[in-house]
Amino acid sequence: MVTVVVRTDYSDNVAWRRVRAALDNTGPTFVIEGPEWDGATVDEVLEASAPHAVLAVVFIADAQTMSSAEYPLLAVASITPDHDDYEETIWNGRDFRTLPRASHEIHRGLELLTDAFASLASVAHSHPGVVFRGRQFSGRGPAGAKPSA
């Protein structure tokens, strides 16, 4: 259960060190980086991850990540249109932003099947700046559900 992050922007090494520190403080992370990834698109990252079909989500550290004060990663569903539940998975979009500290929560929830990508995207849309900040921030339970009274 290792979170996978692909770095596609190399414009700010200080920002990248901050992203890495935030990731390292929350759980195991496998980082893919190198000059060949500079400027890679979401589709290129997904194409490269296709042989690793076990990944439910891939996180991308792109230009927006490096230029934003909170360093939000792009969380991208790795499901392809040929899967039966493709439409259900991406009904709220195939990607959303998340704080680095919340990436492990997303990854774990998807891997353990306690969350659905569409529900997590919905929670992100309810947060300021359309960035998933984690359930603790939102006060919501699994899959973005409101706590019962």
- Give me the secondary-structure category: alpha/beta
Helix content: 25-40%
Q: Which stretches of 5+ consecutive residues score pLDDT under 50?
A: 137-149
Tell me the major beta sheet.
6 strands, mixed
Query: What is the β-strand count?
Result: 6
Order of strands across the main sheet: 2-1-3-4-5-6
Overview of the molecule:
With 149 residues, this protein is α/β, with parallel strands linked by helices. It is 37% helix and 17% strand. The protein contains 7 helices and 6 strands, in the order E-H-E-H-E-H-E-H-E-H-H-E-H. Strands 2-1-3-4-5-6 form a 6-stranded mixed β-sheet, sandwiched between helices. Strand 1, helix 1 and strand 2 form a beta-alpha-beta unit. The longest helix has 12 residues.
Main attributes of the structure:
single chain; 149 residues; alpha/beta; six-stranded mixed sheet; 6 strands; 37% helix; globular
Summarize the structure.
The chain is α/β, with parallel strands linked by helices and 149 residues long. It has helices at residues 13-24, 42-49, 63-67, 86-89, 100-111, 117-126, 135-138; strands spanning 3-7, 29-32, 57-61, 73-77, 95-98, 131-132. Strands 2-1-3-4-5-6 form a six-stranded mixed β-sheet, with helices on both faces.
Topology:
Layout: E1 3-7, H1 13-24, E2 29-32, H2 42-49, E3 57-61, H3 63-67, E4 73-77, H4 86-89, E5 95-98, H5 100-111, H6 117-126, E6 131-132, H7 135-138
Parallel strand pairs: 1-2, 1-3, 5-6
Antiparallel strand pairs: 3-4, 4-5
